[in-house]
Design goal:
Strand order of the largest sheet of chain A: 1-2
CATH topology of chain B: Rossmann fold
Order of helices and strands of chain B: EEEHEEHEEHHHEHEHEHEEH
Strand content of chain B: 25-35%
Helix content of chain B: 25-40%
Number of strands of chain B: 12
Number of helices of chain A: 3
Helix content of chain A: 25-40%
Structural class of chain B: alpha/beta
CATH class of chain B: Alpha Beta
Largest interface: A-B, 23 and 30 residues
Strand order of the largest sheet of chain B: 6-9-10-3-11-12
Strand content of chain A: 15-25%
CATH architecture of chain B: 3-Layer(aba) Sandwich
Order of helices and strands of chain A: EEHHH
Distance between the termini of chain B: 32 Å
Number of domains of chain B: 1
Oligomer: heterodimer
Largest sheet of chain A: 2 strands, parallel
Radius of gyration of chain A: 18 Å
């Protein structure tokens, strides 16, 4: 906003790759309208490793259950900031996106 | 009937044959130690039994409780009662220890056609198992193995074993990286889980662990085969002489 003096922004973007055929490109786009604004951006990209998958499976979780557990753990930090209705929707969306993603 | 019956097992990893004809019978309630020089195939044996991808059985059979183990996927083997305590337990960020334990426990119950356990009941159960290992509630609230010291990771492996109550526990170099205090704690935890219905396969390079967890049988694995078997005195003999006599590959 043009009149916001000394505004600060921190944008964090974390990607989790599932499987071997995907990649992530993270390009920050932050528009500032006041020269005193401070903006920061941080991005991480991680992958569900084969080791993590085997560890979960060796404890009795199917590949689908393992991916679901790891993905939900990954998303937890953001989910817990959302109002309840959004969190429930987001949870369902993740479930639908994961269907058919394993095997 | 043997709990685990391995006959002429050959296995390759990345195209290399590592196991070259393993024969091993483990009866219920027995503790077997497999010792050997580095690179002999000890960890490969544990991964082949647990069903890790990339480890291919090219010949031989593995029967577990009378069933063909090779036919089962890794998670099915786990739910049938095979547990592997990893040498290097992996971190699972974002997944709380207690949640992980409960998911694993319920997966087994579902596999057996039983009802899932109540959360409060499960908490009490886990706490009772965590006592011997000196593990606090706080540790279980952390993500699985994230930021754990080597000793804490190994204790966490044994806690999982105590909760999942396997019929066959494979301990892959559980003593590696542990100081005496941690070794004692882990050993106490393992010894508490001895039962006539539970067998253990202890894979170790050093004899030291076997002072704390006394085996019934000791086998020397070198060049992909079991070269010699004996009682627990064999471990002491190896400690005195080392693995030199097994360094030449047998004809």
């Amino acid at each position: 906003m043009p009149k916001a003096e000394g505004a600060r922004n921190f944008t964090q973007c974390d990607s989790l790759l599932i499987g071997n055929t995907c990649g992530a490109h993270t390009v920050p786009y932050i528009e500032t309208r006041n020269p005193t604004a401070r903006v920061e951006h941080e991005a991480t990209t991680s992958k569900i490793s084969e080791d993590q998958m085997f560890y979960c499976q060796q404890r009795g979780l199917s590949p689908e259950e393992a991916v679901s557990l790891i993905v939900n753990g990954f998303c937890k930090e953001v989910m817990k900031e959302l109002p309840m209705e959004f969190a429930v929707e987001a949870q369902k969306l993740i479930g639908i996106s994961l269907e058919g993603s394993v095997g | 009937m043997s709990l685990l019956s391995i006959r002429d097992l050959h296995a390759t990893v990345g195209g290399n044959e590592i196991l070259k004809g393993i024969n091993l019978e483990i009866g219920p309630g027995e503790i077997h130690a497999v010792m050997g020089p580095n690179g002999s195939g000890k960890s490969t044996l544990s991964y082949v039994l647990a069903g890790r991808e990339g480890y291919e059985v090219t010949r031989g059979t593995i029967a577990f409780k009378g069933k063909d183990l090779i036919d089962l996927a890794a998670d099915e083997r786990a739910n049938e009662g095979v547990f592997l305590a990893f040498q290097y337990p992996v971190e699972v960020p974002g997944v709380v220890g207690m949640t992980f334990l409960r998911e694993a426990y319920n997966a087994k119950l579902r596999y057996l056609g039983k009802q899932e356990i109540d959360a409060m009941e499960f908490l009490k159960f886990v706490r009772s198992r965590a006592k011997t290992l000196n593990m606090s509630d706080d540790m279980l609230k952390r993500a699985v193995n994230v930021g754990f010291s080597g000793g804490e990771k190994k204790r966490n492996e044994i806690l999982q074993m105590a909760v999942l109550e396997p019929d066959l526990a494979i301990l892959d170099e559980t003593d590696s990286g542990l100081d005496i205090d941690a070794l004692k704690l882990v050993s106490d935890g393992v010894n508490e889980l001895r039962s006539e219905n539970r067998s253990m396969l202890i894979i170790t390079h050093y004899q030291r662990l076997l002072n704390y967890i006394q085996p019934d049988h000791v086998h020397v694995l070198a060049h992909g085969k079991i070269q010699r078997s004996g009682g627990k005195e064999l471990a002491l003999e190896l400690e005195a002489k080392g693995y030199a006599e097994f360094s030449e590959e047998a004809a």
